[in-house]
């Protein structure tokens, strides 16, 4: 069957039909709902009534049943039960947080079809507006565009159509996410049919951004170079941006500049280290899938493969040459000698020395209270760390005691709602932002599934590893 954008419209229509039968989840998630778990935390069942939405599939429901039977702590089991299906239950129309379901694609054709439709739809948007990361519903959905009052007064160049674009904050990790979604789908299904003209147009636009945003702010004759700017202010949640919306000047390093961080906060310096590390990795994977699918042999595939290989190495070399000082990676640099060491909870540095700094007073956005601690960021404030930082910390250690301490730090700080917040105050267990944050919920479930393979004896009734779909 030829996949068209009508598949996206169908997915959205089904999701909307299910949502019409259920309360708005933002409201629903603000108070405990279903029966409590049998553990000491008595966490409520928080999936939308009347049960699994039409976006869920038998394979995702089976993972929940399998994990509940294996997890030895009923509170952790309830958290997984609430968080694993959260994207499909609540935000499928926004197509985010699909990484959790990748292991199921090879055994679940309906989920694979949905993810393929997501890739096609994202490719259409990226090819039109590669600097933007948030879009209106596709026309095929029949859903009307919504007004984003925070974007109306912001000047963006190149200009955008607000009937198509919801908000045009440029984040290089958004483009990396598209590449990751593509290679994850191919890796699970070996289906290369999404690599069509629409997809190649999007990838070519990504390389356009890479080339433009790797350049310094001034040329040899001090002419100012600007391919994208975003002014902020005038109703935006972010303040006005210096230098006509271009931000701080930068010099060429081989890295790629970004205007915003994954948290939506403005970058202090353009070269965001974790985003560039992700870019290097995803470009390497891009070359891999083109090679494995045979498309790197000729035509568009050959050209893209060559660029991916060149830029992956260039960016990697530049990260090592420009961001590492005393075995600590800077969070942001500008190629002009300035560096900023912090973490805003959206990154997972691989090296022990950097990780130690990020999870200590050495990080200006690390905060610790009596009942909660972690890394946060200016997106909220300095005393509201993100639970996502604790999830990332679990990924970064093999120490059993540390894993359990961090796992229960998260579990004990849901304000009795059984869902993962965006941020949590270090002063009060009832002071948090977003009772429900889809990204954090999916990330938590993904982490538990990682432990199910890496440390089964730590969380299961026995030491037998579990992989979804197998």
> What general outline do the C-alpha atoms trace?
globular
The parts where pLDDT drops under 50 for at least 5 residues are 1-22, 345-350
CATH class division of the domain at 95-340: Mainly Alpha
The helix/strand series, from N terminus to C terminus, equals HHHHHHEEEHHEHEHHEEEEHEEHHEEHH
Give me the secondary-structure topology.
Elements: H1 6-20, H2 25-28, H3 58-70, H4 74-83, H5 86-91, H6 109-128, E1 134-135, E2 156-157, E3 165-167, H7 172-189, H8 197-213, E4 229-230, H9 242-245, E5 271-272, H10 273-292, H11 299-322, E6 324-325, E7 328-329, E8 332-333, E9 339-340, H12 352-358, E10 366-368, E11 373-375, H13 387-395, H14 400-411, E12 423-424, E13 432-433, H15 438-454, H16 456-459
Antiparallel strand pairs: 1-3, 2-4, 5-8, 6-7, 8-9, 10-11, 12-13
Summarize the model shown.
The chain is mainly alpha-helical. It has helices at 6-20, 25-28, 58-70, 74-83, 86-91, 109-128, 172-189, 197-213, 242-245, 273-292, 299-322, 352-358, 387-395, 400-411, 438-454, 456-459; strands spanning 134-135, 156-157, 165-167, 229-230, 271-272, 324-325, 328-329, 332-333, 339-340, 366-368, 373-375, 423-424, 432-433.
């Amino acid at each position: 069957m030829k996949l068209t954008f009508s598949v996206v419209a169908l997915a959205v229509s089904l999701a909307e039909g299910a949502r019409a039968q259920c309360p708005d989840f933002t409201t629903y998630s603000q108070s405990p709902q279903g029966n409590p778990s049998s553990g000491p935390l008595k966490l409520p069942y928080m999936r939308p009534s009347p049960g699994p939405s039409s976006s869920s599939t038998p394979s995702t429901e089976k993972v929940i049943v399998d994990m509940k039977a294996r997890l030895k702590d009923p509170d952790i089991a309830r958290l997984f039960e609430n968080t694993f299906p959260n994207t499909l239950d609540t935000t499928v129309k926004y197509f985010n947080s699909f990484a959790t379901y990748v292991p199921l694609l090879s055994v679940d054709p309906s989920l694979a079809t949905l993810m393929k439709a997501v890739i096609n739809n994202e490719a259409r948007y990226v090819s039109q507006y590669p600097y933007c990361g948030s879009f209106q519903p596709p026309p095929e959905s029949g859903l009307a565009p919504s007004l984003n009052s925070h974007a109306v007064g912001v000047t963006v160049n190149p200009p955008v159509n607000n009937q198509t674009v919801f908000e045009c904050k440029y984040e290089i990790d958004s483009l990396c996410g598209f590449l990751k979604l593509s290679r994850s789908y191919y890796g699970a299904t070996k289906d290369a049919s999404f690599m069509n003209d629409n997809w190649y147009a999007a990838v070519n636009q990504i390389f356009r951004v890479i080339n433009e945003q790797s350049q310094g702010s001034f040329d040899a004759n001090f002419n100012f170079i600007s391919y994208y700017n975003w002014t902020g202010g005038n109703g935006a949640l972010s303040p006005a941006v210096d230098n006509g919306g271009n931000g701080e000047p930068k010099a060429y390093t081989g890295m790629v500049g970004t205007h915003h961080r994954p948290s939506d906060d403005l970058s202090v310096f353009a070269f965001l280290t974790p985003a560039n590390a992700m870019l290097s990795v995803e470009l390497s994977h891009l070359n891999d899938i083109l090679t494995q699918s045979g498309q790197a042999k000729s035509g568009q595939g050959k050209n893209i493969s060559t660029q991916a290989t060149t830029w992956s190495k260039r960016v990697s070399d530049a990260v090592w040459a420009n961001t590492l000082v005393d075995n600590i990676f800077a969070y942001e640099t500008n190629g002009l000698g300035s560096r900023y060491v912090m973490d805003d909870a959206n990154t997972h540095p691989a090296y022990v020395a950097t990780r130690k700094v990020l999870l200590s007073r050495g990080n200006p956005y690390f905060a610790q209270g009596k009942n909660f601690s972690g890394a946060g960021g200016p997106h909220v404030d300095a005393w509201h760390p993100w639970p996502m930082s604790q999830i990332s910390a679990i990924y970064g250690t093999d120490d059993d005691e540390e894993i359990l301490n961090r796992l229960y730090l998260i579990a004990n700080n849901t304000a009795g709602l059984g869902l993962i917040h965006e941020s949590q105050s270090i002063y009060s267990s009832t002071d948090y932002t977003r009772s429900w944050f889809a990204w954090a919920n999916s990330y938590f479930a993904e982490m538990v599934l990682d432990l199910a393979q890496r440390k089964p004896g730590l969380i299961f009734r026995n030491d037998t590893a579990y992989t979804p779909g197998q």
